[in-house]
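Subject: Delta-1-pyrroline-5-carboxylate synthase structure
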Amino acid sequence: IRCWSNIPFITMPLSRAHGKSFAHRSELKHAKRIVVKLGSAVVTRGDECGLALGRLASIVEQVSMLQNQGREMMIVTSGAVAFGKQRLRHEILLSQSVRQALHSGQSQLKDMAIPVLEARACAAAGQSGLMALYEAMFTQYSICAAQILVTNLDFHDEQKRRNLNGTLHELLRMNIVPIINTNDAVVPPPEPNSDLQGVNVISVKDNDSLAARLAVEMKTDLLIVLSDVEGLFDSPPGSDDAKLIDIFYPGDQQSVTFGTKSRVGMGGMEAKVKAALWALQGGTSVVIANGTHPKISGHVITDIVEGKKVGTFFSEVKPAGPTVEQQGEMARAGGRTLAALQPEQRAEIIYRLADLLTDQREEILLANKKDLEEAENKGKLALPLLKRLSLSTSKLNSLAIGLRQIAASSQDSVGRVIRRTRIAKDLDLEQVTVPIGVLLVIFESRPDCLPQVSALAIASGNGLLLKGGKEAAHSNQILHHLTQEALSIHGVKDAVQLVNTREEVEDLCRLDKLIDLIIPRGSSQLVRNIQKAAKGIPVMGHSEGICHVYVDTDASVEKVTRIIRDSKCEYPAACNALETLLIHRDLLRTPLFDQIIDMLRVEQVKIHAGPKFASYLTFSPSEVKSLRTEYGDLECCIEVVDSVQEAVEHIHKYGSSHTDVIITENEKTAEFFLQHVDSACVFWNASTRFSDGYRFGLGAEVGISTSRIHARGPVGIEGLLTTKWLLRGDNHVVSDFSEHGSMKYLHESLPLPQRNTN
């Protein structure tokens, strides 16, 4: 805790040797000294007369937040001319209105003309007011601000440079935010082409060049340039083909088309790029972003510092492979080629992948051993996640069997006709299955997920982006290599891409123009985070797997312990494992109940008592904190219910609509349970662990969905398909079907083509 002016604030351990800019966005969170440059379009209103107060207040709030984290913030601001223009116009109008009222009467006021105001005069009139506004805003966060006005001469005169440098360092030391601006009241007009002549020379002709010069002089870690465009584009912003450039490298100027200059201010985008490259060369990282967009301006600065994908990031380090945007485009193109293959060719790819999983078993297990050793050394993975991370010969054999099931069942998945209708004579309509497009599958600690999901994507003709956890990096790498090897036999290697860049999951969820469906495979927290982050992209999955087993009064003694043991103990980390055991009240203190408790004790299952169950016991186990808990380990909750109806109500209130089971010999009771429980999977006298794509005969699954549209339960090939409509006519037009037209609608159902059931 540091204190200044008796105001405490928390500091962060931020320090690094200056001289080299950050290579990746994810490193920006380590930036200690930051310059924020506010362009004229950001600070001024749309009418160019006066300040955008709401936007400015939001920027001050973000800068204050970062300052109070222990960072050293500096602001290079425009706005003095606009603020002065507003004040001078008001004074001129007031003066003219008095004179004209005395000489010409009120009728002449509407004809008054505002003279063209000289920029230097506006700056002189606006600088004090602008600074007073900044001071008032920063005071709300107990932060002091100080104004510094500079000109080009201040950087060329060695003594003045040292004085400026010393002043800024002293202000930063005292936790004061310096607010710097060119002294537009006295600055001469810029000389054309006089700037950016080398590393040590850049003339201050606008606030872009001032910010760059200041950033390098002060050995700043990060320069954030806010303007009224999102960043750099490969064609003029607003054009149909314009794409935002996420990362810009020196030498990429040829790939950028500069549009027109900002509506206000002296520096256009070309000036910003030149200044940014100069600062980058001097060791300062740069991001150019939009500071005017109402949806992002309230957090644009903090988002940049957190490493989120905002604007254009300038980097001197080019990645070895393609960007995630390029991978998305490759997956899209590869997926379309994959969908155009014959079904036998797609099946051949999957059969080849299944063979590779067994043929290359030793290499796969060796890579997996590296992941396990690294995870154990770091000690960050819980035991259930370590179990998920582990591969074995039996797991690989099961994977291969599942893949062959997928290949065998996928012969007529894509292009299958599911409806045929004769609209009118010679006008036939078909509804056929087609791939969804590009899938993004995000998975944690589950390398076996990669070949499963890849096979399902191949069978359904979808392009695929895979984002695995860092803990399974070695396993994922070799499994992806084998997948691409299998795809290569028909020239569609690019259809499945493994994202190896430092892309954050939240950033991937924003690629709505590249991704059509997100499928998370992992913890409930991961799924919730993705559902929250995904803007405009549907998410298929379940946030929790709170599965119930209800033991009815008519349950078979032989079946109860077997089903409960399998549901809870066979693989407690799975999402389809038992979490809450519901027992009919009449079974308490019976031999059957004692057998259940004894079995759970032998299996070392920790029991948590529900409120009603605890009330029946003198000495009860620890009472459950919440009946809506997914333990993912050898733990479960036991609760008591009075009837099957109450069991159904409990499941609806505390369950997650995943998988729920009844154990009973009473068929009427069982059917009531099956019909009334509103979950994706509802079983009678069977373990919850059967809720699985492989066990359902789907070959594998991309996940289990608890949503109520499109796909529900274990999602196999069918869940990765959508449909399109094909209409075949012969010179048909709608006007022929009008009241006095020559044609009539038939709407006759036609037989479907015979399916290939081999």
